[in-house]
Amino acid sequence: xxxxxxxxxxxxxxxxxxxxxxxxxxxxxxxxxxxxxxxxxxxxxxxxxxxxxxxxxxxxxxxxxxxxxxxxxxxxxxxxxxxxxxxxxxxxxxxxxxxxxxxxxxxxxxxxxxxxxxxxxxxxxxxxxxxxxxxxxxxxxxxxxxxxxxxxxxxxxxxxxxxxxxxxxxxxxxxxxxxxxxxxxxxxxxxxxxxxxxxxxxxxxxxxxxxxxxxxxxxxxxxxxxxxxxxxxxxxxxxxxxxxxxxxxxxxxxxxxxxxxxxxxxxxxxxxxxxxxxxxxxxxxxxxxxxxxxxxxxxxxxxxxxxxxxxxxxxxxxxxxxxxxxxxxxxxxxxxxxxxxxxxxxxxxx
Amino acid sequence: xxxxxxxxxxxxxxxxxxxxxxxxxxxxxxxxxxxxxxxxxxxxxxxxxxxxxxxxxxxxxxxxxxxxxxxxxxxxxxxxxxxxxxxxxxxxxxxxxxxxxxxxxxxxxxxxxxxxxxxxxxxxxxxxxxxxxxxxxxxxxxxxxxxxxxxxxxxxxxxxxxxxxxxxxxxxxxxxxxxxxxxxxxxxxxxxxxxxxxxxxxxxxxxxxxxxxxxxxxxxxxxxxxxxxxxxxxxxxxxxxxxxxxxxxxxxxxxxxxxxxxxxxxxxxxxxxxxxxxxxxxxxxxxxxxxxxxxxxxxxxxxxxxxxxxxxx
Lengths: 350, 313
Prior knowledge:
Helix content of chain B: 55-70%
Largest sheet of chain A: 7 strands, antiparallel
Order of helices and strands of chain A: EEEEEEEHHHEHEEEHHHHHHHH
Radius of gyration of chain B: 21 Å
Shape of chain B: globular
Strand order of the largest sheet of chain A: 4-3-2-1-7-6-5
Order of helices and strands of chain B: EHHEEHHEEHHEEHHEEHHH
Shape of chain A: rod-shaped
Largest interface: A-B, 39 and 46 residues
Oligomer: heterodimer
Structural class of chain A: alpha+beta
Strand content of chain B: 5-15%
Distance between the termini of chain A: 106 Å
């Protein structure tokens, strides 16, 4: 009779396999065995498919119970009328629908994170104590200074210090800015957390006038004023952590977060430019130096590839930046007298 | 044939799940992978039959996901702690920095073993056969510490302690494994494997490391011979060449296909185990009782975060 089927029952208390008879009711399945005092009733609504089996049958359970009922292919066909889950043989319903929904949800969350993360990371960056920032910055400088000599550090009694103080004079709460010149022929300059600025000798050699150098210095001081070093640190750390968590531990993840981090840093570069112009203007200094420096670097790079690549790579001069710098040129005094400028250029030769 | 496990899964079925998982993982930037792994394991477990009865995997994607989040959080804090420690040490002399580096390496090495044990424990605890749960008791911390101590000894003996350490770890694992209320037991001794290891160790350089495949195969057979549960024994005769062709074959498949032949590697591995393993002995299933449910619900997090491969999905 179609209403009676057979199956195998594992009661979840011992490992014994028991042959059982199945009776299909309207609401529930009755499971019975000669050796049982009374039959078991499993309601269709409670039943879950634990697995679909290789022979075409299935393994069923009732809610979170330990017991298992194993049925063959023919019994499955008949039970499928009462239990919808049996009809799909493991094939996910609405697969494509779920796929699209999943993609949309991920895209939405991703966009939110990308847009919301900068604001959050900036708040977090402000929370980092000054002492820790200085420690990080000092460690970074020590790292950079490996294998090379520190030609000079800005101080109250030297030219470097005098120039720095002049540019940073208008900063409302001036942090302790320390500028170091490292004896490396690289054309570059960095700002680190904690008020450190590192200038490589190559940049000093490349600059042809004190105003160009002052422009670069003002740009780096601008980074410090706007707290860019720590903000970038938190933004990037969070991003790389997130992408490792999402995509798993792969190199692809770090590459992706690096790309996004660079996108973020372009804003910082523009901000630092604006700040630089303001600082120089407040100090009544000539403001066109940075623009001139960029123009010359790009020209040099075109004819002698690699000579300025480092600086241009870490301070990407987009056309917007160039335009804004050009438009904001103001007349002012020279940053240093020519005598002092020449002396500064010789800082690594003593 | 009655005593051997049988794999009734087809390559096409594995590929179906594989591609589905891949697609969904890509569009969810990887978040789906926990549910994907669960799906694959449920399928594989249900296609492995022992004495005609299929195994069952009762883990969920959610457990894996939560476990991963917990491990990620823990790891995040640990990394920050080490970064702070490193910065603080940098303001002292050089020696401190080296010490922090050493402490970091030791910690992560320990975490590797702890994570492996936790992942095994989760998988074993979510495996059933005939409705009865397996269980891996014991502590991941003990396992990790045993491993650390052993690794130290392996280091100072130029590797000769390795078979002893491996046997100790196996012993710990199997002595704490149960099927329902029935315990497994392991009676292997490190010194019994030592002679074989010594030969492989001496031949390591002349054979460009191949001798280790031979040793590993011998070790696998040894572990099987010395494991039992009740009246049931395990036999797994494997030759070095068979093991080598499995491992290196899978490696090549993975590399050459950029991962697209992974299902083939999975099938090869399962087939390998089912073909080589025999599980003779009377098992009175009516006498085996269900034990209390396992409480750890997310043990695989660390392994997942550190990308530890515990084998088979």
